[in-house]
């Protein structure tokens, strides 16, 4: 694989209580590319995604063995700052979840909690982040209106702008289009490709056309294992494993 690796797991295992949800996963996520995680329901896609910024820490029953490195550093090192990790590795969820605040305040929230008070700088960050999320033109005249007055697709782009405002290196997206119509979905897919010029994107999707259209690399998971990981074109045109081929040709799933 060419290019550098930003996130890497080695023999990663995760349990929810007795349930062995991730089994010996070793994967290298390339920097500034889009990686899609696909596979049937319950195979562990979201669990793997949440491992990358330690969101599974929030689930009491979960325990992990193996290693996860971000830019070469072990994210489970006792000296690692989990809040800094989640800032550098942002997350966008299935259902848009803007705060019940104005459009402006949603984007300014992150920089503000880092002590940014200067209005001119905040205004600039808000504008750049909304432009980065392809939302600026639609909201520039209504920045102080409630975020919840936006459409679902706009709310999802606002959540992406909120991530961008704290200058992440990577953004994890867990089925970000599943609640959206096809037009809003197409906008988010275009945006994902655009964002990946300067950020790493890892996206969980049930939609194989979406993985094929928007990602550079694809990992196929099955029953907690990573069956195959390769360039998206390879996975879809010439998969190395029969299981992958059966899944992408719709023989099960
Ligand atoms: N908080 C939890 N507690 C216990 N088990 C869980 C928890 N979250 C997920 N699991 C189990 O872990 C396994 C993997 O779940 P995960 O949500 O990662 O799969 P997925 O591939 O993302 O599924 P889907 O495509 O349906 O969202 C499943 O068997 C699921 O039931």
What does this molecule look like?
The protein is 36% helix and 26% strand. It has 253 residues and is an alpha/beta fold. It has one domain (5-248): 3-Layer(aba) Sandwich (Rossmann fold), CATH 3.40.50. The chain has a 6-stranded mixed sheet with strand order 6-7-8-3-9-10, sandwiched between helices. Strands 2-1-4-5 form a 4-stranded antiparallel sheet, covered by helices on one side. Strand 7 (170-174), helix 7 and strand 8 (200-204) form a beta-alpha-beta unit. Helix 3 (103-113) packs across helix 4 (119-132), helix 4 (119-132) packs across helix 6 (152-164) and helix 6 runs parallel beside helix 7. It is globular, with a radius of gyration of 18 Å. The two termini are 28 Å apart. 42% of the residues are buried. The chain binds adenosine-5'-triphosphate. Residues 16, 19, 21, 39, 41-47, 59, 61, 206 line the site of adenosine-5'-triphosphate.
């Amino acid at each position: 694989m060419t290019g550098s690796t930003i996130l890497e797991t080695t023999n990663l295992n995760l349990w929810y209580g007795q349930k062995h949800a991730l089994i010996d996963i070793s994967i290298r996520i390339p920097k500034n590319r889009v990686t899609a995680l696909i596979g049937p329901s319950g195979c562990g896609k979201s669990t793997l995604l949440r491992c990358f910024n330690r969101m599974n820490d929030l689930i009491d029953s979960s325990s992990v063995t193996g290693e996860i490195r971000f830019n070469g550093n072990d994210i489970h090192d006792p000296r690692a700052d989990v809040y800094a990790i989640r800032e550098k590795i942002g997350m966008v969820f299935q259902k848009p979840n803007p705060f019940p605040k104005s459009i402006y305040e949603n984007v300014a929230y992150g920089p503000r909690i880092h002590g940014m008070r200067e209005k001119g700088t905040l205004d600039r960050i808000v504008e750049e982040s909304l432009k980065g999320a392809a939302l600026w033109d639609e909201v520039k005249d209504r920045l102080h209106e409630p975020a919840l007055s936006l459409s679902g697709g706009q709310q999802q782009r606002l959540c992406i702008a909120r991530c961008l405002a704290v200058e992440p290196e990577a953004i994890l997206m867990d089925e970000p289009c599943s609640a959206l119509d096809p037009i809003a979905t197409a906008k988010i897919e275009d945006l994902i490709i655009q964002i990946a010029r300067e950020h790493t994107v890892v996206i969980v999707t049930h939609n194989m056309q979406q993985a094929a259209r928007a990602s550079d690399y694809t990992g196929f998971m099955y029953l907690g294992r990573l069956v195959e990981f390769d360039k998206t074109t390879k996975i879809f045109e010439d998969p190395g494993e029969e299981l992958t081929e059966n899944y992408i040709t719709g023989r099960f799933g």
